[in-house]
Design a protein that fits this description.
By secondary structure, the chain is mainly alpha-helical. 50% of the residues lie in helices and 9% in strands. The strands form three sheets. It has a three-stranded antiparallel beta sheet, with helices on one face. It is elongated and about 90 Å long.
């Protein structure tokens, strides 16, 4: 049967010798794509859907590419060249362990919000934390955003799903009194200077572990964040700071300068004792043979010292919160604290430490009372 012609670049429908109906769509560069149906209506419906996709800018030649095939391509062509190595490893791990097993077999163009939502629900039911499930969704959302740019899908179905809610735990860092007690308790500990600099500067753990002596100017009382230490495929590696705002110079209080001077003396002694075993990374805080510190070991030591000092349990990252809370309590402006911490946006600083506002407002009210009482 002769084909029934349609308008230019709209396609044709014809009945084949085997009785099936074939709809063909004209695509760019002179290519054509066929869709089949048992009835003319079925072929016509597929043709209409294809024409809608073509009008939306989708690449019909992508064919039966699966979610798994696309994610592999996205990781290699987009993620790896554009993100930090540690971020890429995190993306790849979530693709490998979660997204491909659950969704990898589905055709990319046919992935639905319901399928993604079911995957998120199942991950939560399997015991993953809400934060982890949120991150899995975020990775898929970012990947599908690229699929839209490439014309492989008409919409980003990950954005049409609801991530699990997680109760945000209030930050409860050490108080000023507790911080003083901890620093006094650990002043003779090998890691004492590390804890001291963490509390007085608010540097991230990776920034502290990646701090090198050329980045420290004890005469000027400053340090400059130029690197962070991360483990990539298990190997310690110095990488660029987290963001442009993370590249910063921090003015040190006198107590931190003194702690760093003691650290340099102790490290010189350790270097002499290590002899040929010393590996010169140039790190301010290192093992007894100069190699990078192991985060897990440092955290265990930190929590053991807290317990021995009779202080509440903390994460190492809470020392960063402690620094911020002390600065706020000292009346340091929020924008200045943002710069010290290396936050990319002041809203991040404000939202993280909103819980401290009531106490600061009470201090402000008391100060106002004092001012108004002067003339009485």
């Amino acid at each position: 049967m002769a084909a029934k012609r349609r308008g230019h670049h709209e396609g044709t429908i014809r009945q084949r010798a085997d009785g099936r109906w074939e709809a063909q769509v004209s695509m760019p560069r002179g290519k054509r794509k066929s869709y089949y149906g048992k009835t003319r209506r079925e072929a016509q419906d597929k043709l209409r859907a294809a024409l809608r996709d073509l009008d939306a800018g989708l690449d019909l030649a992508a064919g039966r590419q699966t979610v798994g095939q696309f994610l592999d391509r996205w990781l290699a062509d987009v993620a790896k060249p554009s993100v930090r190595p540690s971020t890429y490893e995190s993306y790849a791990g979530h693709v490998r362990n979660h997204l491909k097993p659950a969704l990898g077999h589905i055709q990319l163009a046919k992935l639905t919000p319901q399928q993604v939502q079911t995957m998120l629900t199942e991950k939560t039911a399997a015991g993953l934390s809400p934060r982890t499930v949120q991150y899995i969704r975020a990775v898929l959302r970012r990947a599908l955003g690229q699929a839209m740019k490439w014309g492989l899908v008409a919409r980003n179905v990950a954005t049409l799903t609801e991530p699990p809610r997680s109760a945000k735990k209030p930050v409860q860092p050490l108080t000023a009194e507790q911080a003083r007690a901890f620093l006094d308790f650990t002043k003779d500990d090998r890691l004492g200077p590390l804890f001291h600099v963490a509390i007085t500067t608010g540097l991230r753990q990776g920034e502290l572990f990646g701090l090198r002596w050329p980045d420290v100017d004890l005469a000027a009382g400053t340090l400059t964040v130029r690197h962070a230490l991360q483990r990539i495929n298990g190997k310690p590696t110095l990488v660029a700071p987290k963001t442009d705002k993370s590249r910063r110079t921090v003015t040190l209080p006198a107590s931190a300068v003194a702690a760093l001077r003691e650290q340099r003396k102790r490290q010189l002694q350790e270097r002499l004792l290590a002899g040929s075993r010393w590996q010169d990374w140039g790190l301010v805080f290192a093992s007894t043979i100069g190699t990078p510190l192991e985060p897990t070991n440092v955290t265990h030591r930190f929590q053991r010292l807290l317990a021995d000092a009779g202080l509440p349990r903390q994460r190492f990252h809470d020392l960063r919160h402690c620094a911020a809370s002390l600065l706020l309590a000292g009346g340091v402006p929020l924008r200045t604290i943002m710069g010290i911490l290396g936050h990319s946006q002041i809203s991040l600083t404000a939202n993280t430490y909103t819980h401290l506002a009531p106490a600061l407002e009470r201090d402000a009210a008391a100060a106002l009372d004092a001012v108004l009482a002067v003339g009485e």
